[in-house]
Amino acid sequence: MTWLQSVATLVCAAGLAVFYYLMELHPQSPKKIPTEGKEFRMPDSRFHYTPDALYGLLDQAGDHLPRLRRYWLLDFGLIVCFWGVMIAIGLNVAGRGTALFLPMGILATARALLDIAENLLLLRLCRRYPQRGDRLAALAGLATAAKFVCLYAWVALLFVKLFAAAFGIVGLS
User: Fold this and answer.
1) What is the DSSP string of the chain?
2) Does the global pTM surpass 0.85?
3) Model confidence at 173, in pLDDT bands (50, 70, 90)?
4) What gap in Å lies between CA 149 and CA 133, rounded to an integer?
């Protein structure tokens, strides 16, 4: 790893920490929305959700919709930082020119693009609320599920690479 890659990785990792704090731990976090006996859970932290489930959460947020908008706007920064960390891990573990680097890079990029699409859809639905847009809400739920599938596939390839290196499997290590 070159010094430039190291610096970029550190910047992305620090960015992840900052955006995580602003989104999850800050007093304006949606997790601080008062609910009956449990923590408010953002829809995009679930594997999938239906339009009814999404609108149930928007109803539950009530006057706190600006917190949700703030969260999704901050998420754009988290997406970029997380993408950078995923690419850096791919470079460091799989290495440029290996059989797994390109698929890992494609999955990391697809995950980021799906996350961006999801945020844009959720922001639009939030802006239009209380008017419903069930097709857009269903599309947002699909984008969320596809984002998680890309993440899980990327992690699976990471483990394939680590096991291949540990057991000396030629072509992947």
Assistant:
1) --HHHHHHHHHHHHHHHHHHIIIIISTT-GGGS--SSS----GGGSS---HHHHHHHHHHHGGGHHHHHHHHHHHHHHHHHHHHHHHHHIIIII-TTSTTHHHHHHHHHHHHHHHHHHHHHHHHHHHHTTS--HHHHHHHHHHHHHHHHHHHHHHHHHHHHHHHHHHT-TTT-
2) yes
3) low
4) 24
* pLDDT at 51 exceeding the cut of 80: yes
Domain boundaries, the chain: 3-167
Distance of alpha carbon 25 from alpha carbon 2, whole angstroms: 33
Token digits of residue 49: 């959700």
Q: Report the first-to-last Cα separation within the chain, whole angstroms.
A: 17
**pLDDT tens figures, 54-98:** 999 999 999 999 999 999 999 999 999 999 999 999 988 877 777
How does residue 111 score in pLDDT terms, banded at 50, 70 and 90? very high
